[in-house]
Each structure stands twice: as structure tokens, then as C-alpha cells.
Please model this.
Amino acid sequence: MENMDRHQENWDAYYKSNPEKFDDPWLEKYVHLFDPFPAPVILDLGCGNGNNLPFLIKCSATVYACDYSKEAIHLVSSEFPIVKTSVLDMRTPLPFASEKFEVIVSDLSLHYYSKAMTERIFQELARILKQNGLLFVRVNSVLDVLHGFGKGDELEPHYFVSDGRHKRFFDSDDIDDYFGKAFRIEVKEEKKSNRSSREKILWEIVLRKKV
Model:
């Protein structure tokens, strides 16, 4: 298990210094996919300071938001008191009942782990998502050289550690390998994002749990 505990303070310091949200409404084009769920229970896993929450709250009255950073959860709780918040470590079993959620969003929060840990996390996501439920994900692309691909020591294919920070990057085959076991891939697009001062290249993925 990766020793990420020392990074919690770094993430807390980051959100204290950067409480503002990005103008990055990437989920809005998928609003029609929420129509079959009249009152979905939604999980924002790795919610950060709540960038996706305004959209998710419009789609549901029951939204859970979790993050590893205590400061991020403090910001979310203060701004969105309707949201059920908790500090959560994805390396441990997720504290939710099986098939609890119709929709899960994990935005740039699933690419910090070893292959074995990543596979366990995906198994947990499949467990807590309902049959035919939707999983919206964005992860690092192997083309994302401005944000760390190829920097530091490569511990596993596409998995690097630099200055004590672990990052995984995905190519198209990786997406199929990690996500294709429990989910049907409905959207898989490599995109550029300007959510930071340096252009970021990421994968935007929409998945549906297999029946």
C-alpha cells in the first residue's frame, strides 16, 4: 500500500491556498444520461473543493462528496451544506453499502495508485454502483508530459514517483484493461483541458456497470 499519508498535509495546504473553483463544466454535456434516474443517489469521489458539485446538486437532492483532504471537505461542507461529506481514503474499503449509488463521479482522483491498488479501487466502485449505474471518470493521459508523464522513477508501466509523489498515466489500452472488466465503456475520449495554467491532457470516460 502506497504511503500517501504524508500527502494529506500537502493537499490541505493546496486547498487553503487555492480555494477557488475551476471553470470546467465538463459534465454538463452528459445531463441527458441522468434522465433515467429521477432521483439518483450520487457520489463525488475525490471531490476536491467541489468543482463538480453545483451540477450534481441540480441533478439530485442526495449527493455524497468525499476527499482525502480535510481542508477540501471543510470547504465543501461550508459552501454546500446539503451535501453529505466525509474524509475518505480510497486505499481502504469504501464505507458504503453495495449498489448504493446510481451515479459516481471521480474527477482526476483515480491516478495515484499502483496497479494492484487501482484494480481494488475499481472493484469497490463496481460494488457500490447499482446495476446499469453510471461512472464518470477523468484520469491522466500518457500525453500529459506537462503534468508529470516520464518524470521521476517508473515503478510500473505508466506509473511514476517524483519528489515523493506517485502518479499514474493511462493510454487507450490501459482504459480498456482497468475499466473494461466490470464496466461497459460508453465514452472514451482523450482531451485537452485548460483547468490549470499549463494545458493538461486527460481521458474523459463514461462507463456503465455491466449487468
